[in-house]
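Reviewers asked in the last cycle whether our approach scales beyond single polypeptides. To address this, we selected a multi-component target totalling 442 residues and predicted its structure end to end. The input consisted of the following lines:
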Amino acid sequence: MQYIIDRIEQGIAICEEESGTMVKLPLKELPIGSREGDVLFKLNGTFQFDGEATNRRRQKMREKLNRLIK
Amino acid sequence: MTTNMAGKKGKRILALAAVLCMILLTGCVYKATGSVDMNTAVPRETDGQKTDSGLAAHFIDVGQGDSTLIEANGHFMLVDAGEKDQTDTVINYLKAQGVKKLDYVIGTHPHSDHIGGLEGVIREFDVTTVMLPEKEHTTRIYEGMLDAIADKNIKVTIPKAGESYRLGDASFQIISPNRDYGDNLNNWSIGMRLVYGKTSFVLCGDAEKEAEQDMLLSGFPLKADVLKVSHHGSSTSSTPEFIKAVSPRYAVISCGKNNDYGHPHKETMDLFKKQGFKVLRTDQIGTIVIESDGTGLQILGQDEQQENLAGETRENETDTGKDYIINTNTGKFHLPDCKLAKSIKEENRKLYTGTREELINQGLEPCKSCNP
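The resulting structure, written as structure tokens, was:
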């Protein structure tokens, strides 16, 4: 299961599940240094940072945005 | 004719020189981008369809999130659309206001509590201009919004600080973002000062203290009658300096009832109270509509008394509430230690444990002396 951190507020990470459902996870349960936009996956009950997926999505979204800019 | 033309040309050169001088004097290179799209800066004709006069700002109750509809002389602008699960709330509200076309759709910054509903809104209505900050996000909600923009063949405008745009007889100046804020998405928020006649509104998404500091340094006018309080009243925004520069009569906070983040924060509310601003909160009074006729403001559906109620900071109020004394004769409620409560006749005196909000919902009035 993949999670994307939408935002971090008051020690809570508001994450988007693959289904689009928003879930609130305590920041302390996430990898240290987790940032908004990070893609995470759950393995054996713990959240892991997926650096490759994060970079891939960041680049894809940047390209999509750039194509739309006047 | 020729002299007239030459005169015009001369004026243009003078204007250009003045702009150049300003840039040199302020040393703010970003202002150079404020050369203003002249097409949008020129007042647009309304084709005589001025069925509706005046301006209305609708702070739509979308729970924990932001969504503001601005209506000026039959022209519409939507700033944010709450979480994705609020899409229908926003669409239905817009339809009820007679919206068919949105002149502007602004996604202040890519967090889901601001842009979540925009995919649906963009697909539902005709949209002329979409404005976004030049900062991407990785969520599917963000991608869905970009896909909707692409599907409708709309181009994205990245507004630059200093630029001005028209909405009916109103105009708005972009006051933020003033620079690259890296990965702080809140600070990327598109901020604007909307002016209609002598009345003005400032809306800056979730801009935090760094962005507020840059707005102060920018020299743009910030004074406004209404401030849409940044970041749902979080203490990460609303620095005393920024608040003083805006000095609004009304501070509007868009936040959800009993939200998980404690918004609005006590520090922010204390600051507003100290400054004497009237606070209006969507979690307490639902959707807030402020109308302007160009000279004064009117809060729709709110009499002065209710406004004052909304303006009070409520501390220590929990889900279970606290003790109040109700005077069943006058319909007022008091704090247990209120002088006036002590004089209530026994038969009219009732102890109530709960929240202030529950009492107000029951049609009871807070005592003006103890201000429960």
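The helical segments of chain A are 51-68. We regard this as preliminary and will revisit it once experimental data from Aim 1 are available.
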